[in-house]
Amino acid sequence: MQKQKAYLDCLPRQEAQELWITKLTEVGYFNNLPREKVAVTEALGRVTASVIFAKQSVPHYNGAAMDGIALYAPDSFGAQETAPKRLQLLQPDETFQPGGCYVVDTGDLLPTGTNAVIMIEDVHWVDDQAEVITAATPWQHVRIIGEDIVAKEVVLPEHHLIAPVDMAALLAAGIEEIEVVKRPRVAIIPTGDEIVASRQDLKPGKILDVNGPMLAAAVTQWGGDPVRREIVKDQRAAIEEAILASLKDCDMVVVNAGTSAGREDYTAPILSELGQVLVHGVAIKPGKPVILAICQDKPVIGLPGYPVSAMLTADLFVRSVVLARQKLPQPEQSQVEAFLSRQVPSTIGLEEYLRLSIGSVEGRLVAAPLGRGAGLLSSLTKAQGLLRIDPSSAGIAAGASVPVTFLRSSKPENTILAVGSHDPALELLGFYMRRFKPELSLSFANVGSLGGIMAIRNREAHLAGIHLLDEATGRYNVPYVQKYLSQRKVHLVHFAMRQQGLLVLPGNPKKIYSLEDLLRQDKLTGQKITYVNRQRGTGTRMLLDYQLKKAGIDSSQIVGYEKEVGTHMAVAASVASGTADTGLGLEAAAQALGLDFIPVTDIHQGTGEQYDLLLNFSDHDKVMELILHILKSPDFRRDVEAMGGYDLSKAGMIIEL
């Protein structure tokens, strides 16, 4: 096979897919597929290798289809209500005589000499005779030989995906073992000096191999046989050896990571030497540095290392090959039109795939974009839909109607969209909702309190968590709801009083006790204290700015003020990892990651922060009633308060607007 130098030259996705399948077809990869024999009882989900013919008829004898009496039909001719016919009851071991009958149960062999069955409820017994008032037609209520399947006829066609009902038909037709297409063996080779196999080996600078199990599970779901290899270090010879070994005993090889054009990205050069690199780089986002190659007439694919990129490119380029290798059709994914909840910018020239939460709000489908990072595993688990943004587009405006592909079987009408301020306790609310109504799911888009109010105003959310302090009145939330939602019928419900404060490392090594400390230098390093902030529009950001103004602190003097993260847990993670010295967040987030907490608002001193829920439901909506019930329940209040820094004594109270 011709070899060529690997290079990063992005092809359009459709062109890359067509080239990939065309070249594999040319080398005969999808022809003369290997077979194996399996027991029918183990054949679920397998694909028939050839046409399967019946070894026996179904049924293989004439049998009673009802409980009743078996008779010779002409013996009942003329029977009517005014002139019934009587038939002599015969014992099972007696030879049939004209005018006789036998008692039979459903499935019994039809006695010799009989050719019909009359249902037991239509028979009147007089001594040892059966009296009938309706004539039977020949073969009435009889399952005759071959009524379902005739011996030698086709039971299942070639390349048929075997379902439970197919197994029953095969067994009934006398078939106990069949030939099926052998599952394609797919080697999965994780690469990278930073990759470790277990949590015990995890430390800063190391990454747990989550892609290997994820890709193996995907291959299994597509009907393949995954073969997970040991992690290979970023050494060219070691990677080449692993690929060659996998080509010997597998039908396809997936190399994970090392697919870009960096110094230690060896996958493309190796594949170029071992075979032909068809594609190095596809114009998609995420997943651009994918490699499609053919080595020893087998497909070898290099997938990017980030989980979202790896899963997307596997879905686009691995699944089709695994299915085609089994002669299975590509699945059709259903699409619906949904309204985009917020503006989404995009890069011209790249086909972008954006994951979404989807819910039905006031009778229309709303799609809320999730995080777009290629490494955000949470976007994979939370996504219910996928939006493909055309390469010619610079983005999509908020409120636009877009075609969305469903990723999960959950129904949008059962998804409750929570768009607004983040709070860990909201996830607990979602757990409680599913306890009462398992079909419900609470999906989150953390866009801050103001973003939540706008989502409610635009009919793009069912609920929004908000905690906005109005400096002029000293009140939380009500002034903002009155200002922005005066034309909407909404419900404002109290959730909790919360403690917000500065999150610091255990023992508070930087001696941070107040906002004033954000301006000083660390005595040990001589460097200023570093801060991590929440995004604009969040109640936490507004609370910080309010407190800074009260203290006369210029925010431009705070190192890290411009560095933004999306949740309280992200603030806690930044502090715990040493990325920042401190950040304003919930006490619950500090407790979750074992951090110390310096209160800025204090529920015990009456200065707690008020966190409320905006509910976009009709007055007697069952979901709203469920939410109010949960908020008022002692169990829920206890569980939330146990997280630390919450007071739910008035949770569920309706706030007058």
Q: Architecture of the largest domain, CATH level 2?
A: 3-Layer(aba) Sandwich
Query: How much of the residues is beta strand, in percent?
Result: 25-35%
Low-confidence stretches: 1-7
CATH-derived topology of the largest domain: Molybdenum Cofactor Biosythetic Enzyme, Chain A
Fourth CATH level, the homologous superfamily of the largest domain:
MoaB/Mog-like domain
- Secondary-structure class: alpha/beta
- The number of strands is 40
Q: Report how far apart the termini are.
A: 75 Å
Please report the first level of CATH classification, the CATH class of the largest domain. Alpha Beta
Number of helices: 15
Shape: globular
Largest sheet: 6 strands, mixed
Family: Belongs to the MoeA family.
Organism: Heliorestis convoluta
Domain MoaB/Mog: 187-324
Protein name: Molybdopterin molybdenumtransferase
Tell me what you see in this structure:
It is a single chain. This protein is an alpha/beta fold and 657 residues long. It has 5 domains: 13-32 and 183-325, MoaB/Mog-like domain (Molybdenum Cofactor Biosythetic Enzyme, Chain A), CATH 3.40.980; 35-58 and 147-181, Molybdopterin biosynthesis moea protein, domain 2, CATH 3.90.105.10; 63-143, Molybdopterin biosynthesis moea protein, domain 3 (Molybdopterin biosynthesis moeA protein, domain 3, Beta Complex), CATH 2.170.190; 337-408, Beta-clip, CATH 2.40.340.10; 500-600, D-Maltodextrin-Binding Protein, domain 2, CATH 3.40.190.10. It has 15 helices and 40 strands. β29 (415-420), α8 and β30 form a beta-alpha-beta unit. It catalyses: adenylyl-molybdopterin + molybdate = Mo-molybdopterin + AMP + H(+). InterPro entries: MoaB/Mog-like_dom_sf, MoaB/Mog_dom, MoCF_biosynth_CS, MoeA-like, MoeA_C_domain_IV, MoeA_C_domain_IV_sf, MoeA_linker/N, MoeA_linker/N_sf. Belongs to the MoeA family.
